[in-house]
Automatic annotation (TrEMBL):
It catalyses: meso-2,6-diaminopimelate + H(+) = L-lysine + CO2. Pyridoxal 5'-phosphate binds at residues 228, 265-268, 363. One of its GO terms (molecular function) is pyridoxal phosphate binding. HAMAP family: LysA. Residues 19-361 form the Orn/DAP/Arg decarboxylase 2 C-terminal domain. One of its GO terms (biological process) is lysine biosynthetic process via diaminopimelate. This is Diaminopimelate decarboxylase. It is an enzyme of class 4 (lyase). Homodimer. Specifically catalyzes the decarboxylation of meso-diaminopimelate (meso-DAP) to L-lysine. Its cofactor is pyridoxal 5'-phosphate. The lineage of its organism: Bacteria, Pseudomonadati, Bacteroidota, Sphingobacteriia, Sphingobacteriales. Residues 40-271 form the Orn/DAP/Arg decarboxylase 2 N-terminal domain. It comes from Pedobacter duraquae.
Amino acid sequence: MIFSDKDSTQFADLETPFYYYDLSLLDKTIASCATEADAHKFHVHYAMKANFNPTVVQRMQSAGFGADCVSGGEVNQAVTLGFAANKVVFAGVGKSDKEINTALDNDIFCFNVESIQELEVINELAEKKNKTAKVAIRINPNVDAHTHHNITTGLDENKFGINSWDLPACADMLKKSPNLEFIGIHFHIGSQITNMEVYKNLCVRVNEFAAWFEDRGFTVKVLNVGGGLGIDYHNPDQQVPDFKSYFQIFADFLTVRAGQEVHFELGRALVGQSASLISKVLYVKNGKKKNFIILDAGMTELMRPALYQAYHKIENISKKASDVVKYDVVGPICESTDCFGKEVELPETTRGDLIALRSTGAYGEVMASHYNLRENVRVVFSD
């Protein structure tokens, strides 16, 4: 997505702020992922938490992907938007009884289970419905994803998954739970991972845990390695992630036995570069120590920078060439954390200029809020 003078002219008549989706880029990204996954007969589930805009999700369904859900609402949305129930997986460290029953009623493919107590609950609820629930055990492999602390999920200190020392008790629970069918093991070590060596380490651990279950008489049909593949926030015009290299890591280092399936749960890599948040400059405040650009978009539209200091490239799409000035780019929300970037070099900016915050297709629109009684954020598609 490279913005042109034509874009800024067209956007001038639209009410800001809004998320702008480049559907051609989205389609190109999805197609690349599908092609590279198919080359290894890998199964991809789209992580709906990244972006559950119906237009986006339906493109994932049309590509033949499954759905990775982390709430009962996402399970319902996936089924409503056409995903086959046998391609829907339900993860999450805190599934409520209501959510579990929703998934059971929809006969989903699998629960990714994160505690021994959760196994008990699913077994009890399935028994009441005279059903058998398929489960994969999410294991905490204690693999460092080398990403931001707040989006690391695979260490012993994290709340996610079953720790290795609890696996014997987990195996015992599976054996005495008649309404559970163990189908495999599941991992997810974090998000925005760009160091491919991390995935080699994960493969080693997956191989070890698969062998552990097989040695105890379990048949491991599914190896679900999660997702987490990152995007380049600093260079958003290099847009489609290297899915070929990503999948090749698992093809080279994962031990896959006859009859086993390898599943992935990708989100950010599929949608991250496909959208930008377009905002208008309300005011420019020039001071002795700081120059501020105050936008009509704030943390209510894009939470990531306030939540964990996430970087998004910021562009003035109304001015392509001008004297460069350093600005703190902030929003209108009554919080000091409502800041998108500090000391950002931009062309000299004036009231009414349009600003693009890039790479916001993942965890952008879906995390918008009504704090300060803000309106729903608007959405514009390239078609």
